[in-house]
Amino acid sequence: MPLIALTVDLEPDCPPYLSDSWRGVTEGFQDLLALLREELVPVTVFCTGEVAERHPGAVEDLLEDGHELACHGQTHRAFTDLGAAEAAEEIGRSAAILRRFAPVDAFRAPYLRLPEEYLPLVAAEGFRVDSSGARYKWGGTRPGPSRELVRIPASVTSSVLRLPGIIRDPWLLALRDPVVLFVHPWEFVDLRQTRLRYDCRFRTGPFALAALRSVIRGFRSRGGDFRRISGLVDG
User: Fold this and answer.
1) Which stretches of the chain score pLDDT less than 70?
2) pLDDT digit string (tens) for 65-108?
3) Which one of 31, 66, 161, 208 is most buried, counting C-beta atoms within 10 A?
4) Contact at 8 Å (CB) between 201 and 158?
């Protein structure tokens, strides 16, 4: 039985291409939560501190639905562009803000890029899980071992889930266990007519919602067991 963790990165719209746009949080996230209620799927939501400050109701809604809150940094700046002091500030500030709502044990760096030398900063803030790595990327994005953190990388990029099923499903079925998927609420806003990069705008809005429902049901039909990130660690 494959283990699947469906995760959500709750952040500004399509960073870094849009500026001060939050339709994913105010519109797309509610559509996503409704789908998850219908499909009875628990998720882990990696939320930025800035989202929690601007839109606390979104955090309250996900917790009310029984989902797990996790940390996605403060402002969605790339950690590869930050010095150690700035990185420590991003991690510490976001952790403090999010823990006003609920316990938070897992961390994911924006863009799935976290320099290895910043792992101790994550551990120092009391996190026990890092999900900043990506199996599908080459180079420094593939996580190495850590004595302080359990490292759980993402299996595939989010835009793959929006592909037509004839392409997507064989790809997903070939992923090794545990399968860690992620989506962004802005993907559930119709951005097809925007000038965004193609992989950010294709099959967004209702197409993305329908595709995610198909992915969930496809894994379920094969005995897939959906868990929060903590469920991959604790069993």
Assistant:
1) 1, 138-146, 235
2) 999 999 999 999 999 999 999 999 999 999 999 999 999 999 99
3) 208
4) no
